[in-house]
Amino acid sequence: MLKRKGPYSEESSDLCIHDVAQPRPLKRLRIANAACNPPFRDILTNISSEILLRILSFLSSSELLDISPTSRRLYRLALDPHLWREHYYERFVLPRALRIPGFRIGGAGGTRLQYSARRAVWADGRKGRAPNDEFLKESTKNESVDWKRQYKLRHNWARGKCAVEEVSVRDASEEGEGQKRTLIKVVEGIAITADSESGLRAWDLRTRRPTAQRNFCEGDESDDSTPTSLAVDENSSATEVDIIVGFADGSFGLWRLNLEQQELTRRYRHEKSCNGEIIAVACGHPYVLTATTAGLISLYTFNRPATAPPDDITNSASNNSESLSYGTVEQQAKPRDVGTILPAPYLLTSLKSHTTHLPIALSIRRMSSSVSASIAYTFPVRNGLCIGVQDLLITPSPDGSGVDKLTSRLASTLPITASGGVDTIQTHGSRPEFMTLCYSHPYLLATLPDNTLVLYLCTSTAKSLSLSSGIRLWGHTSGISDAEITPRGKAVSISTRGDEIRVWELEGRVGGSSIEVRPTTRQPSDNTDSPTTAPRAEWEDRRNWVGFDDEMVIVLKETRDGRESLMVYDFT
C-alpha cells in the first residue's frame, strides 16, 4: 500500500535549491601581525642567569631534574649548588634540627633556623670537630661541596638504592679452615683488614684496590700471632689513621696509616700475656683499652708520668664499684720497651670480673676537658641477662707531668628476654644470648637471637650515668649476624644468611622503622642496558661482619669453601 505524502511546501523546496546552487563560504584567513611572529631565537637567551636561578629556586627537586635536559643552559643552571643546598637542608637537615632543643622555626612555612644553644651542631653531620680544626680549614679552601651529589647520596640511603661489587680478600685454603676470619674496620672511605696470612692491609673503597700492606711480625719475631680484634682511632687527623690490633696470645700492636704516602708504620708491639686472647680493643691517643677472655680490662696511656703514683690513686677507678662491675686488681708489671716509635705505655688501671659474658664493646671518646673510656658488657642475673656500662672518666693533670685522675660511673639495664618484651621478667628460666653489642655514645645497640635488636640511650653527666628503657626494633626476617651504629643514631644490620641488609635512622625516634637495602649490579661500560637486580645470595654463604661510612656499606662474606670477600654496597 502506498503511503500518503505530506502536503508539498514551496518554502522547503526553495531552501534545497539554494543549498545546491551556492557552495559554503571558505574559512576566513587570519592574517597575523608581524609583532606576533615567533622569535628566531630562544626567549631564555635574553634573560640573565640570575633571574633564571631565581625562577628555578621555586621548583622542586623533581622538577629541576625534569627541566635540566631541555637545554644546555638550563642543564648548567640546574646544577647550581645553591639550589640543591636549599633542597638538601629542607629535606634532610631541617627535620633533624627541629628535634634539637633551642631551634625555632621561622614564619609560616619558612625554613629559617635560629640557634640559641651554646654548642654548635654541624648540619652536614661532622663528627664534632672544632671550628679551628686544620682539617676544616683545608677542606674549606680546597673543597667545594657538590650539593646535588650529597642530595642524591642521602636520597639513595633513604630509598635503599645502591650498587654492589665484590672484592676478594682471602682465597680458600685447606690449612686455613681452623684459622680466625678476617677482621675489618671502615673509616672515611678506607677499609682496614687484618688476617694471619696477609697481615694488615688498607683498601681504597673507591678504587676497590689495596693501597698499603704490612706484616704483623718483623725481623726475628715469631709468626704465630692470629689477630682477634681490631679498632681504629676515628679522631685521628685527616691524613693519618691510628690502628690497634689485638692477638690471640694476649699481645696487641699499634700501627699508623699515612693516607698521603699510602704507607703503614708500626708504632708499638706489646708483649704476650697469660690472661687469654684479646677480644676487644679501643684506642684514642694516648690511651689504649683492651679486654681479654679472662675478664681482664686494662687501660694504658703512652703519656708516662714523671713519678710513680701511689696505690690509692691507681685503685680509685673502682672504689665505688658494685658487684655487677669490674673490680680493680693490683697493678701489673710495666711492658718492656721493644725500641719502637712509641715508648712502652703506662698501666693506669685494670678491672677484673668473673661474671661477665661475651660480647664486650669498648670505646674511647674525647670531651672538652676529659676523656671517657667506656666498657659495655653483659652479665647474667636470675631472670635473664643485663647490659652494663662502666665509664672510666680520665682527667689529665693540668701540667701534663702528673698522674691522670680516674673516676668510675656505672649503669645497667633491667633483665632482657629474647622472646618477649624488653625489661620484662622471664618465667621459663631460659636466658637469651646477645649476638653482638655495639656502643657509640649515646647509643647502645644489642642484637638478639629472635631476629630483633634492642636500643638504649645512654645519658652521661659530670656526676651520673644512666641508661634508658630498651626499645625493641623489628624488621629482620632471619638471624642477625652483626650491626653497627654511629653517634648520630644511624645503624646498619645484616642477616647471617641471605642478603637482608637494613638501614635504621634512630635519632629522635621512639620506634624503629628500617629500610631494606635493594642493591643492583653494575654493568660494564660498553653495555648500555640499565643496571640489573643483584643475584640472590647463596644460602651457604655467611655474612660475618658489617660496617659503613657516609657513602658505602661493607659486608664480609664467607663462602662454604672458606673464601672471604668484601661486598661493597655503593650509594653514590
From TrEMBL:
Gene3D superfamilies according to UniProt: 1.20.1280.50, YVTN repeat-like/Quinoprotein amine dehydrogenase
Keywords, ordered alphabetically: WD repeat
Cross-referenced InterPro entries: F-box-like_dom_sf (IPR036047), F-box_dom (IPR001810), WD40/YVTN_repeat-like_dom_sf (IPR015943), WD40_repeat_dom_sf (IPR036322), WD40_rpt (IPR001680)
KW Zinc (keyword) present: no
Regions of compositional bias (Polar residues) in chain numbering: 313-330, 520-533
Start and stop residues of the WD repeats: 473-507
Protein name: F-box domain-containing protein
UniProt record similarity statement: Belongs to the WD repeat MET30/SCONB/SCON-2 family.
Coiled-coil residue spans: none
Chain positions covered by the region annotation Disordered: 310-330, 514-538
Residue ranges of every copy of the F-box domain listed in the record: 41-87
